[in-house]
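Morning F.,

Quick status update on the modeling queue. The single chain you submitted on Monday has been processed. Sequence for confirmation:
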Amino acid sequence: MAAIAVNIQASSEMTLKESLDECMEALDLFLNNHFNESLEKLQPRVNVSMYHALIYATVLEMQAMMTFQHDDISHAGNTMKMAQDVCQRVRNKSSGLVSKIAAEPLTEEQLHAEVCYAECQLQRAALTFLQDENMVSFIKGGIKVRKSYLIYKELHSLIQSNTCVTGPCHSHLVGGVSFGMGAFNLTLSMFPPRILRLLEFAGFSGDKDYGLSLLNNGATALNLRSMLSALLLLCYYTFLTFVLGTGEGEVGEAEKLLAPFRLRYPNGAIFFFFAGRTEEIKGNIDEAVELFEDGCKAQQAWKQFHHMCYWELMWCFTYKRAWKMAYFYADLLSQESRWSKAMYVYMKAACLSMLPEGESRPFGEDEVELFRQVPTFKQRIAGKSPPTEKFAIRKARRYRAERPIKLPVPVLEMMYMWNGFSVIRKRPELTAGMLETIEEAQRTLLETPEHESSADDQCLIHLLRGMCLKNQGLLEAAEQSFNSVCAGEKKIRYEHYLVPNAMVELSLLYHDQGRRDEAIKILHKAKHYKEYSMESRTRFRIHAALAKLKADPGDEEPLDAAHT
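Structure tokens below.
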């Protein structure tokens, strides 16, 4: 007991600068793939040092978000709560940051406690999203997020004033505030007004350019939050702008940000992954495959990190129409990853369904049986199933019948949902191959006796064909295909998502042709559609398209939480 007391006393006597230095060393280990060693360095001081507690909990949260296992999420949440308690012990006890400053100047350590406390609140909110069964009520209240935002906002004003205490660790304080303010501004700028109202963030403005400048400054500075700022920016440039935006991605910015990290951490698995994403978005599929494979080889400690690479490898081989290779990675994911087994099994079945009927299937698997299994793997997160999983389960229902009617091109439909046609746009031969597959599916559809989903299937083919024609620069033919989807609206029985998405594609085509007013008009028309599959993703894309056109997003009706 005496030894433990001495150890705690020694830990508590560590200066703020020494704590920050040791946490920087731990992050350095993390970025060099020494994940467990990073945690071991932090763990002894998690009960006495706010920074050790925060970074330790942050690493566990990253792990939880990759494994998606309930125990990991729960453990990370409890650890983040403990980190918040450590921060609370250091904070000034009077309520309200402004009143604290008015009463007496806060010490440097108390200022750091404020920014760490705000970060704990923010990260706990993210974890609650993964595990809380009553998440809808939590989101509507937005208590943790709102409290965190207000602390960041007041700290930001304070560090810009001449009353702020500037000690030897001031750069880390500025980095923490820049990360928080940057994250809020960037994230909120992406949300359509109706989703912001659901989150009850009315009055919380998000300035994208300002958020990006704060995060870029943070990522290129030398402070504890540099890595977090860089990772958030890389996610934004290579995922968020791509999947929830108009499909361009911001590759140049991502490459510029990655360059110094790749020099400093040449074997860093995280940076192999983002380098792979940038090559994938550029259409350099073979280079992307090599980088994702290198990311898997770089470390074996966190197998869940491999799953992120497997997901991208699945899509890379889909773009090349190497259906058995795409199946192979979907199969690995279905066996190892907890994120969405229903989605992985659906993708296995979808890949096999693209093979000619007489061709042998790997492991003797049968796509019809796999499609029938999909609903049995349904999970509930935050009291509901993830939208992509709900979509996969709904599509698989076609196979419940004794003599099921095949889905025409299920892999390409899901590829559209992940903005994959934007990837192959840079590679004419890949687009030509996809168009060949789509036209073959169209011929099969015309030869098949009419059934209840015939109009839906035909409209899907029109949408995907339009995407390929647009990639080839055949804009009039692409416009005709997208208009065919809209013209078939009254005949559609189930796939109601097709029409608003066709409208989004028409608006982007009009933008390319300089027909700005028509583009804005059809986007506002698309906003009136409700209660269709993957609605939130489409609304994010509408918002991004309006921003691209520099148009006012306008007022929108409140979004029912069930469709988020």
